[in-house]
Design a protein that fits this description.
Layout: E1 7-9, H1 10-19, H2 29-43, E2 54-56, E3 62-64, E4 69-78, E5 84-85, E6 87-92, H3 102-105, E7 117-121, E8 125-128, E9 137-144, E10 154-156, H4 160-175, H5 178-200, H6 204-214
Parallel strand pairs: 6-7
Antiparallel strand pairs: 1-10, 2-9, 3-8, 4-5, 4-9, 7-8
Helix pairs in contact: 1-2, 1-4, 2-4, 4-5
Length: 226
């Protein structure tokens, strides 16, 4: 099934972990919370991680990434009038090679002539090319760890048991119990792979749109810019 939008607090994972781990009552709670965070990273992003779009404003040709961002999904650039500007994603950090397009080298924005705005990134910023003087703001969609208003992790309900298995594996690692580590490593890996697969299954809405595209040979208008 596709990832649900039902959340539970991290305490639910801790309680489930304790219920399947004899003698775990005295374990430091802070360790388990850290393990849940690590386990979520291993599971990777899913629909529950999608953030509300945020608006970024350029400073010295840079757009600072949100501090809670796991990874970007999409970004759109706009001028002061709200018109969208075309860009080409160039990869990591700044441009170091001269373009074969003289318009880009002269800092001219001409997407119809192969000179869209250069966009690149590093760990902390999106970088705009020298022809990005008309960029007033950007709108970013991104993955983030789901948290509540207090910054506490929210756990997708269907991932509770999987994360409990990861915590139990980490518990045996902390005790240096090699038998327990071997047993629960295999259980955790199997559950992790199953969860990752479930996260990738499209929803009914997405599936219906895919089916409409596959089931017809008739040319029809497609709205891909979203």
């Amino acid at each position: 099934m596709a990832t649900t939008s039902s959340f539970v607090p991290v305490d639910q994972v801790i309680a489930t972990f304790k219920s399947i781990t004899e003698g775990a009552d005295t374990i430091d709670r802070a360790f388990v919370k850290e393990w849940v965070y690590l386990g979520l990273t291993e599971l990777g992003p899913n629909m529950a991680w999608i953030s509300e779009p945020v608006t970024l404003y350029p400073i010295d040709s840079g757009l600072q990434k949100p501090l809670d961002m796991y990874s970007p999904i999409d970004i759109a650039l706009y001028d002061v009038n709200g018109a969208e500007l075309k860009y080409a994603y160039r990869g990591k950090n700044y441009r170091i090679h001269v373009s074969d397009n003289s318009l880009l080298n002269n800092a001219e924005y001409a997407p119809g002539l192969g000179a869209p705005i250069d966009l690149s990134e590093d760990s902390y910023y999106f970088h705009l090319g020298s022809n990005a003087g008309s960029v007033a703001y950007a709108i970013l969609k991104y993955w983030k760890f789901p948290t509540d208003e207090n910054g506490e992790l929210k756990i997708p309900e269907q991932d509770v048991f999987t994360l409990s298995l990861f915590c139990k594996y980490m518990y045996y690692m902390r005790k240096d119990d090699k038998v327990g580590m071997g047993q629960f490593h295999n259980l955790w890996i199997a559950a992790r792979n199953e969860a990752r697969t479930a996260h990738k299954i499209p929803s009914m809405l997405e599936g219906a749109e895919i089916a409409r595209g596959w089931n017809s040979m008739i040319q029809k208008m497609r709205f891909k810019n979203f």
